[in-house]
Structure formats: C-alpha cells, structure tokens
Amino acid sequence: xxxxxxxxxxxxxxxxxxxxxxxxxxxxxxxxxxxxxxxxxxxxxxxxxxxxxxxxxxxxxxxxxxxxxxxxxxxxxxxxxxxxxxxxxxxxxxxxxxxxxxxxxxxxxxxxxxxxxxxxxxxxxxxxxxxxxxxxxxxxxxxxxxxxxxxxxxxxxxxxxxxxxxx
Length: 167
Ligand SMILES: [Zn+2]
Ligand SMILES: [Zn+2]
Description:
The protein has helices at residues 6-9, 110-121, 156-166; strands spanning 2-4, 15-22, 39-48, 51-65, 72-86, 100-102, 107-109. The chain is α+β, with helices and mostly antiparallel strands and 167 residues long. It is elongated and about 95 Å long. 17% of the residues are buried.
C-alpha cells in the first residue's frame, strides 16, 4: 500500500495514521514458512521539523515446527517499527541505513517498510521455548519430556584401556 504524505508536507507537527495488512506466507525463515497468517502493521507518520518519521508496530502469529524438537508451535510476535522517510538519500558514503526509506512521488511504500521491518526483526531460530532441549540425536526422544536412556558416549581411549586391562 502506498501512503500519500503530500498533505503532511505543509503541516509541520502533523501526523497521518496507517493500518495495513500483508500476506508474507511465501517468505521462508530458516527454511520454514511460518508466516501463515496476515502480518498486520499499524502506526503513524509524523512530520517532525520536515522529517517524516514513521512509528508503529508489526504483529502476526507464526505457525510451524520447532527447530529443535519439531513440535508444532503457535507463536504471537510483535515487532516495533521505526523508519525515517526521505525525498532523497543525502549521504552517499555507501553505508546504507536499513531504516531510511525513499518517498516515491510523496508516497511511502508501506509494504516495503513493513516487509523490511519484519525480515530484520525475525529471530533466526523458531523455537517452542527459549530453552527447548530438543531431541536426543541417538534415540530421537524429546528431551523436554525428560532424559532418555542413552548412555553418555564412551571415551574411545578409555575403551582401549579397558581392553588392555582385560588381557
Ligand atoms: Zn522445541
Ligand atoms: Zn537418547
């Protein structure tokens, strides 16, 4: 969605609210398509001394398997959204500020700003809980339900020593 900010231009101190929802279900995060519900963004653009500042938040509910234990997870997330909208990129020193967005004919490309905020805010891991213990790599038991019966890996040097002592 394009948000027309031309009215804001002649209105220092003024602001324009916005609400937009985006479908990002075809975006993969860590190989998983967890964004099955619409991404909803709300906020406002404020004219602060002729600088357009966007503040708001992005929300959705993610669905997918936990990266460690593969349990189905439903997780509500909310990320803050801050951006500065500008007519022209002033600094040309090659350093790109990801929160600086160009206005196109006086309009802010909300889809682009929301998508960027969302991608930069997403955790690289999708976990059922921060301290998920995951599955045992040997028997596959879900270690969140308790320890499994696997013996700790024997030190091969100790095994050799035992063999020698037996002789
Ligand atoms: Zn888990
Ligand atoms: Zn095990």
